């Protein structure tokens, strides 16, 4: 199954949040009970420097919310970055990338 590519725009110096819903092949919502998640952005896929997203999971709705506080977005130089969101099933340790794409950090004016 192809990983959806969704591009994000993150305004520098602001609080950022985006929600992704995980669905089964038949379109029904995936229960995320027993799952954890991680996500970050990097300038290049092989960069050692990264900026982590905070993650919250709503098991009943199959939602993964990624967020970043203004204290973190303030430190990110404007430009294009790569990001992805990976969930891990705690029962079998299987990792699945649920979304990936580019994150455009726009410069702060105020």
Give the assembly state of these chains: single chain
What's the CATH C level? Answer: Mainly Beta
How are strands sequenced across the largest beta sheet?
A: 1-8-7-3-4
Mean pLDDT: 94
Residue stretches low in confidence (pLDDT < 50, at least 5 long) are: none
CATH-defined topology: Immunoglobulin-like
Q: Looking at this structure, what is the CATH superfamily? A: Immunoglobulins
3D structure, described in words:
The N and C termini lie far apart (42 Å). It contains one helix and eight strands. Helix content is 4%, strand content 49%. The chain is mainly beta and 110 residues long. The chain has one domain (8-106): Sandwich (Immunoglobulin-like), CATH 2.60.40.10. The chain has one helix at residues 70-73; strands at residues 8-11, 16-21, 35-42, 51-52, 54-58, 63-68, 79-89, 95-106. The chain has a five-stranded mixed sheet, with no helix packed on it. The model has no long low-confidence stretch (mean pLDDT 94).
Give the topology, please.
Blueprint: E1 8-11, E2 16-21, E3 35-42, E4 51-52, E5 54-58, E6 63-68, H1 70-73, E7 79-89, E8 95-106
Parallel strand pairs: 1-8
Antiparallel strand pairs: 2-6, 3-4, 3-7, 5-6, 7-8
């Amino acid at each position: 199954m192809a990983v959806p590519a969704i591009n994000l725009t993150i305004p520098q110096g602001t609080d950022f949040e985006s929600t992704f819903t995980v669905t089964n092949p038949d379109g029904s919502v995936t229960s995320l009970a027993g799952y954890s998640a991680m996500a970050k952005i990097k300038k290049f896929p092989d960069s050692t420097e990264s900026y982590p997203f905070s993650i919250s999971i709503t098991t009943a709705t199959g939602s993964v919310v990624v967020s970043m506080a203004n204290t973190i977005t303030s430190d990110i130089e404007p430009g294009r970055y790569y990001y992805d969101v990976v969930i891990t099933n705690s029962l079998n340790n299987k990792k699945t990338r649920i979304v990936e794409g580019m994150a455009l950090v726009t410069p702060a004016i105020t």
